[in-house]
Amino acid sequence: MRQGRLTPGQNRAIERSWGRFGIEPSSGETLSLPRVFGNPNPVWMEIGFGNGENLLQLALSHPEWNLLGVEVHRPGIGRLLLALETQGVANVGLLQADAMEILRHYLRPASLQGLLVLFPDPWPKQRHHKRRLVQAEFATLAARALETGGLLQMATDWEDYAQQMLQVMDAVPELLNLAGAGQFAPRQPDRPVTRFERRGQGLGHGVWELLYRRR
């Protein structure tokens, strides 16, 4: 786990609110998301939510959804918990965990209406590419986690990673590329521009988006 440096406010938010928003999966048991959230509403999951800007906006804009966030970076969790407290949001659950472990062992098939992977760690050095999240196993597990008609939305500001994502995801027969095979999607208008994305734009980075539907 990457712990990072917590501010006192973030640490207090975790102490106050992890018991309310945090999810601790039991070893050997899959998550019953209706039981976790206390309702049968559709669930959208964001992998690597960073500071939680997108997840918070989705929760506020779609109270009819449940939002499940997965992040390993503890300061980002603390920052989001502060915002959830301030906004009085109730439809969010958080996991401090490796996303692949959640997909492999804890998430039931066809349990998600939507899955978001926005600006994952690009691991830019060639020798580190094997650490990238979007590989063949991830693609298979992501398709399994989505219900029929469910959406997978992805974005990166690293062009070579975008090409890798496109190649890997287009190879999954259960997923339909809504922009057309081999094509990137237009920017989704309901996705807020996060601080991380603004920083990339300031450095002259482009943004490549992908959008798939579970067949």
- How are the strands ordered across the major sheet? 3-2-1-4-5-7-6
* Major beta sheet summary: 7 strands, mixed
The pLDDT mean sits at: 94
Number of folding domains? 1
CATH topology: Rossmann fold
Q: So, the CATH homologous superfamily?
A: Vaccinia Virus protein VP39
Low-confidence stretches: none
Helix-strand category? alpha/beta
CATH architecture: 3-Layer(aba) Sandwich
Helix content: 25-40%
Quick one: overall form?
globular
* Distance N to C terminus: 34 Å
What fraction strand?
15-25%
What value does the Rg take, in angstroms?
17 Å
Number of H- or I-type helical stretches: 8
Following the backbone from N to C, one meets helices and strands in this order, namely HHEHEHEHEHEHEHE
**Number of E-state strands:** 7
The CATH class designation is Alpha Beta
